[in-house]
Amino acid sequence: MNANLIATExxxxxxxxxxxxLARCIRSGxxxxxxxxxxxxxxxxxxxxxxxxxxxxxxxxxxxxxITARPRSGYFVASRPSELPExxxxxxxxxxxxxxxxxxxxxxxxxxxxxxxxxxxxACPGPEMFDxxxxxxxxxxxxxxxRDLLCAYPxxxxxxxxxxxxxxxxxNLGCSLHADDVVMTNGCMESITLCLxxxxxxxxxxxxxxxxxxxxxxILQSLHLRALEIPTHPRHGxxxxxxxxxxxxxxxKAVLVVPTLSxxxxxxxxxxxxxxxxxxxxxxxxxxxxxxxxxDLAEQDDKRRAVKSYDTSGHVMxxxxxxxxxxxxxxxxxxxxxxxGAVLRKIKxxxxxxxxAVLEIALAExxxxxxxxxxxxxxxxxxxARVDEARGLIAQSFPKxxxxxxxxxxxxxxxxxxxxLDAVALYEAxxxxxxxxAPGQLFSTSPRFRSFVRLGVGGRWGDEHPAALRRIGAIAQxxxxxxxxxxxx
Length: 489
Ligand SMILES: Cc1ncc(COP(=O)(O)O)c(C=O)c1O
Fold this sequence. Notes:
CATH superfamily of the largest domain: Type I PLP-dependent aspartate aminotransferase-like (Major domain)
Helix content: 40-55%
Radius of gyration: 23 Å
Bound molecules: pyridoxal-5'-phosphate
CATH class of the largest domain: Alpha Beta
CATH topology of the largest domain: Aspartate Aminotransferase, domain 2
Shape: globular
């Protein structure tokens, strides 16, 4: 490895620059599977950096499962399947659009949760992925100790114990929040809805990633807001350049993004882009609604840092929940709304009041337990192995020309099918065999993603799931063959 891995103009830490360049070489196959990496000493000498910088870069690559350490032999390129190309950056139109979502999103979610379904349709880990016993014990204890609260009316922004626990949790995101500014909600979607209500009026334009989570589009539709989709890269997330151009040429009231492990791309914005984004919204004096629901699932620490950590003017409204990482059944979320805190609090009071107090107390305790970090690490490792297995199966059994993302954490894969294959037709064909997937049409206001599917692999996982993934590939191949025959006839 003689190439220079450090860009003179970059403001990123040296170890990240080295890690990022090496990651690209591994993903593109320049560094092949099983190949020995340069020794720490060798690479440090070549790049003119300290050995500890190289060790940090190698640890980052290890966390990303791109290299593995072999005792007394050094580091080797891991055998993670990487031969599938990734989808290209999206190119949505420059006009905002009215949102007209049908019933398909709700149908997919309903079917995805059915017990008899082999499901890849939901973006939530299955119950067995959580530490159920710890949650049950903690909740029981909270009810025993605070039974009086069950019959008292909860008011205000939520229990102070929970708001403090959220503020402590936000330190992992690089943010120092004050518990007084945190409002507890009944999930991230409520947090986002409240933020949008605080900063927009019907008819306003909201910029978001393309593709984006269909739940966001449903919220926009219910509030009569227009969607402006911004080009988004499958690994680096929303294009800040394209967003800047949009903000300079049309009136946008808010930006809604998931900078870490976006849904469905699984993209993570690089740190300098996060900083630019915070500066951009401040310069335009508009709100950035930042969804950090998946940050704890990112494989590397630096990817967990929130855009909010760069916010010096209160323009970032931070929204999170513990429904993907701790206990979806508690249905608790939170929001810190920056300069719109007082407005948001009023809307929340009127809209839905406070949450169940004992649940908030249990949440605060769960977050402060030593076992919490260990449970998160376990969850990250389990879903990482799943994603590897699923990508391997897709490489083997989906039609030639298929593209798939390689997310740096989480359990969502975004798959582009070749030959203009219609994902809704594939969804319907799969349902005939009790297999549920989410068709790409759901994730945009336009039919741009009609040949994409989202596969969630964090749910229940038995022997039937790998077989079902192969079957989806076979059905897609059959549909392609039929189309070819029909066109030839
Ligand atoms: C990006 C994103 N935000 C929010 C949610 C839902 O959050 P909650 O269940 O906390 O309301 C989802 C669910 O899939 C999601 O993907």
